[in-house]
Amino acid sequence: MIKSHALLARKLGLSFNNPKLLQQALTHRSAEHQNNERLEFLGDSVLGFVIAERLFEKFPDADEGVLSRLRATLVNQSALAGLARQLELGDYLILGPGELKSGGYRRDSILSDALEAIMGALLKDQGIDACKAWILELFSAPVSQLSLSDWKKDPKTRLQELMQSRGLELPLYTLLTQSGLPHDQHFQVECRVVLIPDAARGEGGSRKKAEQHAAERMLVRLSESQGIKP
Q1: What's the topology of domain 153-226?
Q2: Catalytic residue chosen out of the listed positions 44, 125, 190, 211
Q3: 116 noted as active-site residue
Q4: Do 47 and 135 touch, CB atoms closer than 8 A?
Q5: Which among 7, 22, 58, 132 is placed 20 to 30 Å from 202, CA to CA?
Q6: Residues in the chain where the model's pLDDT stays below 50
Q7: How much is the pTM?
Q8: Which CATH architecture has domain 5-145?
Q9: Domain boundaries, the chain
């Protein structure tokens, strides 16, 4: 039995002017045409902005690459689903018969989408300031736990240590192209790890720089797709 959405609103510390927006945010596309996909699109955008701004303020000396990786550790599907489980969102989801039978209320993708849809609903209902305040409160603990200490290591080292910590094969780097004059060369490298089927590509003025770039992209991909924090 689906729990009361008014109960959820109180649990979230929210009061919707238009309760139908919260209901829509919790409605999966398997249930009906008026579902949460559009609100999830909106919530995903505002979440990315709010977290990016918060990290920008918290880490004034971090460059764009570090900030991107930090953001990816917070807003990937696995991390969002974890927050949704803490809020017990699965008890309030409106799912179609097929998703109910297959346990859709436990699925990472459905939970993370619903959480982002709530953000989109709050934005539409009360505006950016209220939405931003709620997101910052929700992510207060995860943001406070972030540190730059691990991110100061170069990407290749972090990726290697990540594989070693899991007892997996080390990353494999393959040179794809090398072009240009001796004083102005360009390298393209791909990086592969056993956790992801597709390679990450990197470029640079030396093979070392290209490998670092490829490793950095692989770390971001691991964080976004699997919630792995290096």
Answers
A1: Double Stranded RNA Binding Domain (3.30.160)
A2: 44
A3: yes
A4: yes
A5: 58
A6: none
A7: 0.70
A8: Orthogonal Bundle (1.10)
A9: 5-145, 153-226
